[in-house]
């Protein structure tokens, strides 16, 4: 499953990372190096093995339905690059 | 008075309690050290001097009033991955330069509850992605150790390189760190310090900047095993704010330090003998096995057959989780925001391209790729299945052994710049440590000797889930047998 | 009720008949105090970003913790949809970038939803029933809100809604006409309100539907049903977030026509997400959302599998309120109501409750008529719900009692109702105060009948030929008695006198 420049461009866009055209080929080469090394996993027989999503062998805890948070607009906004009147402000979103 | 900064954490806490010296005194001593050393070692990204003095004075007041906590007055360094209320937290990234969290991580909150004093925030690989500290946006940390006959700056390892370097150079009594694939144990091994990653779920991840959620775990880097135990038991707690936090009490692990290891069964996994492993590493491992045998342990050869697949598995799981965890850095609510962009998409892409460094970007792209349509099963699900195989390997040996001993790293510290060309070369640093992350097991690195260049080497002890007690016990036995007391010669 | 599959409404095209096939995804906001994964309040009307925690805003190191009540609400809803409750489910991350999504992923359930297959019985407009299969119900987070009209060049982000718990209810492609789609959403809404798991407020966006529309040639759907093979069906388009019954119907009609036109022109349907624009009355492509729809779902590593105890599920089941279908059946058997009346009554829980409170010991059919006609109309005119009725059920019961006792006729009852509604007192008080008592004195009625027959001999003679002409005499007698004569007596006496 070799990655080409077009794939790198597509995936970089999925990850929302601007990647100049002249970086696509080198990145593709790097990623191919890593992925071909990763491909040794194909040797492992995993028939009937459950995917392991967590190390914690317990069920999810449930929280009580109580309002314990919120009402902290100042905190929420303190690091905002751009905000106004309690809103975050972003470039115009075209829907 | 002798140099307070050379004290162990335990000795310092005892001295403070006995009022042999004050917290303000020892804190000032560290601040003086940092001021002198940091321009060369670059261990701290921010020194919080005023805050440290204020905290020290408050500690002195509590000591005077007899309400001292377990770490009262002890000056510590905090890896810049832990959010600290009102103090810039960057995770070593330009993305978070200037980010001041209005909240405190649970781990650091536990330390302040116990009376510790914060000296500042410690440098690290960007978002904890790296093994040499060279991915930090604040420049690499320099290892206080030098290879004999060379003046080249060495890496302290990573990602907790700032923590390891600061502890090794007496720039704090001990430090917090975090370990996703070996980021506590590898830097500890490279700097002649002790580092432990506890069982996954022991330390809360609340307020710790996430890298790979199912692997990340906080732990300490300290001067010796006892200090590591003392600090770890303060860091750990059950936390309802972290759904993966374990609802179990935290034991007093300092009790395990110094207990006899006679009769313990120690596993030696055949698969940890890897191609191209330096003879010195093998020799150190053999030495460690011999020490434990002498101390009355039974040495049991074991097999962990899927060991060689651990790193490739890690390089699917960790980037996949990271690609999602780091999606929140988008320039909208906090963090770096590009200027002069032409559209929303441009703002996203430019902010993230500017805010993240090369290694982070590389991993985010790999992560997005292995999760993308058509590749999810072949890469991600496959990796999760192999991960279970790796965990099952360990499960299968716990009825034969009480702990496992291995080398911590495949080499001693290398020169900065040495492994930057090939990412795969860098990834191999974690070959012995990453299995414990994938399986969620506790692992400690203890300095056990010096290589022929006079650089420290570490041995790792891996234990059963929740059995940090045995890990400390065996780690302390190795420490005692090794008698490792060498310090880096001061050149900074 | 019998299991009847929906019959399609054929659409005539230029080249032959077409059928519509639809599956719906309903997003229902879970009725809860706090959000799904944070302790911030859920609600309407707070200032910008006031109901936002650091978790909702996706700050570094913030972690989700699950609201148990939302889980309970989902289980309750699943049971109400007669669906499989999955004792083990899991939360997944759906990854995409959008300014209303602070973490860059929505926590949802793709691989293992909390609720599996179920079925909903829906009443069609003609009184028949059809079943809609439920594929799944899962819990997920809502996104924040973007405000576009505060600046010409920028959008404003309010995260108050971000992280609110939603239940996404996904139907099978069992819906065959715009009317059925509306009836289905109405039925789901009724069930949710009965269960108390969602307030069903569509104006506030607390219930909204994504409609997946495709068209196929007549007969293709039958083949799909027989084989389960989707290739018999057309390519679907998803119309996102339609939030009123009227718009659902309009959007489907437009979209089906659009697709048929494309196909009849020899074109192909592109699978895409579309938006219904009520002002223009058309659907249009949402290219912005299409751009990157590789969501890279994977299990959320911050959350462990959700495991439910069977005993806990059983307890919820045992305490489930009566569901609309069960209530309908009970009203029919207990009160002898027609299916039509029962369906009208159960459409709102408060209406059914009102009916039952008024019907005790009374003529149920009569009570039902008063509740579903006169009272419904008055409440609707005032924009009130049955739970807010100024007239308590006891007054409707009293009114019906007066009719049953023969004190007033149904006609007078209407007048009495007007006065009662105007606040003049209880039905009995109004009847007494206004002297609206029905004339049951047969002597007085006979007298009136005789006088009218005497005055209209020609009409009396005609009645023999045309018995329905008796109606004219009834009217005259009622007029002569000021509407107070007992209609039954009037009829009897007229028949006797006219020799019918
Ligand atoms: Mg949907
Ligand atoms: Zn949804």
TrEMBL record, chain A:
InterPro entries reported in the protein's UniProt record: Asp/Glu-ADT_sf_sub_c, GatC
GO molecular function: ATP binding; glutaminyl-tRNA synthase (glutamine-hydrolyzing) activity; transferase activity
Class of this enzyme: ligase
Keywords: ATP-binding, Ligase, Nucleotide-binding, Protein biosynthesis, Transferase
UniProt key word Ion transport: no
EC numbers: 6.3.5.-
One Pfam family of this chain: GatC
Any one GO BP annotation for this protein: translation
Reactions that this protein is recorded to catalyse: L-glutamyl-tRNA(Gln) + L-glutamine + ATP + H2O = L-glutaminyl-tRNA(Gln) + L-glutamate + ADP + phosphate + H(+); L-aspartyl-tRNA(Asn) + L-glutamine + ATP + H2O = L-asparaginyl-tRNA(Asn) + L-glutamate + ADP + phosphate + 2 H(+)
Keyword Protein biosynthesis in record: yes
Similarity comment: Belongs to the GatC family.
Record function comment: Allows the formation of correctly charged Asn-tRNA(Asn) or Gln-tRNA(Gln) through the transamidation of misacylated Asp-tRNA(Asn) or Glu-tRNA(Gln) in organisms which lack either or both of asparaginyl-tRNA or glutaminyl-tRNA synthetases. The reaction takes place in the presence of glutamine and ATP through an activated phospho-Asp-tRNA(Asn) or phospho-Glu-tRNA(Gln).
Self-association state and partner proteins as the record states: Heterotrimer of A, B and C subunits.
The name this protein goes by in its record: Aspartyl/glutamyl-tRNA(Asn/Gln) amidotransferase subunit C
Lineage: Bacteria, Pseudomonadati, Pseudomonadota, Alphaproteobacteria, Caulobacterales
Encoding gene per record: gatC
From TrEMBL, chain B:
Active site: 79 (charge relay system), 159 (charge relay system), 183 (acyl-ester intermediate)
One Pfam family cited in the UniProt record for this chain: Amidase
Catalytic reaction(s) noted: L-glutamyl-tRNA(Gln) + L-glutamine + ATP + H2O = L-glutaminyl-tRNA(Gln) + L-glutamate + ADP + phosphate + H(+)
UniProt keyword annotations, A-Z: ATP-binding, Ligase, Nucleotide-binding, Protein biosynthesis, Transferase
Annotated Gene Ontology cellular component terms: glutamyl-tRNA(Gln) amidotransferase complex
GO annotation (BP), single: translation
Domain Amidase: 25-471
Enzyme Commission code: 6.3.5.7
Keyword Nucleus: no
InterPro entries on file: Amidase, Amidase_CS, Amidase_dom, AS_sf, GatA
One Gene Ontology term of the molecular function aspect: glutaminyl-tRNA synthase (glutamine-hydrolyzing) activity
Family, as annotated: Belongs to the amidase family. GatA subfamily.
Binding partners and assembly: Heterotrimer of A, B and C subunits.
Functional description taken from the UniProt entry: Allows the formation of correctly charged Gln-tRNA(Gln) through the transamidation of misacylated Glu-tRNA(Gln) in organisms which lack glutaminyl-tRNA synthetase. The reaction takes place in the presence of glutamine and ATP through an activated gamma-phospho-Glu-tRNA(Gln).
Family matches, as HAMAP family: GatA
Protein name (Swiss-Prot/TrEMBL): Glutamyl-tRNA(Gln) amidotransferase subunit A
Automatic annotation (TrEMBL), chain C:
GO biological processes: glutaminyl-tRNAGln biosynthesis via transamidation; translation
EC number(s) reported in the record: 6.3.5.-
Catalytic activity, as annotated: L-aspartyl-tRNA(Asn) + L-glutamine + ATP + H2O = L-asparaginyl-tRNA(Asn) + L-glutamate + ADP + phosphate + 2 H(+); L-glutamyl-tRNA(Gln) + L-glutamine + ATP + H2O = L-glutaminyl-tRNA(Gln) + L-glutamate + ADP + phosphate + H(+)
Gene3D superfamilies, alphabetized: 1.10.10.410, GatB domain, N-terminal subdomain
Record keywords: ATP-binding, Ligase, Nucleotide-binding, Protein biosynthesis, Transferase
Residue ranges of domain Asn/Gln amidotransferase in the record: 353-498
One annotated GO molecular function: glutaminyl-tRNA synthase (glutamine-hydrolyzing) activity
NCBIfam families: gatB, PRK05477.1-2, PRK05477.1-4, PRK05477.1-5
Self-association and partners: Heterotrimer of A, B and C subunits.
Family: Belongs to the GatB/GatE family. GatB subfamily.
Reported function: Allows the formation of correctly charged Asn-tRNA(Asn) or Gln-tRNA(Gln) through the transamidation of misacylated Asp-tRNA(Asn) or Glu-tRNA(Gln) in organisms which lack either or both of asparaginyl-tRNA or glutaminyl-tRNA synthetases. The reaction takes place in the presence of glutamine and ATP through an activated phospho-Asp-tRNA(Asn) or phospho-Glu-tRNA(Gln).
Name by which UniProt lists this protein: Aspartyl/glutamyl-tRNA(Asn/Gln) amidotransferase subunit B
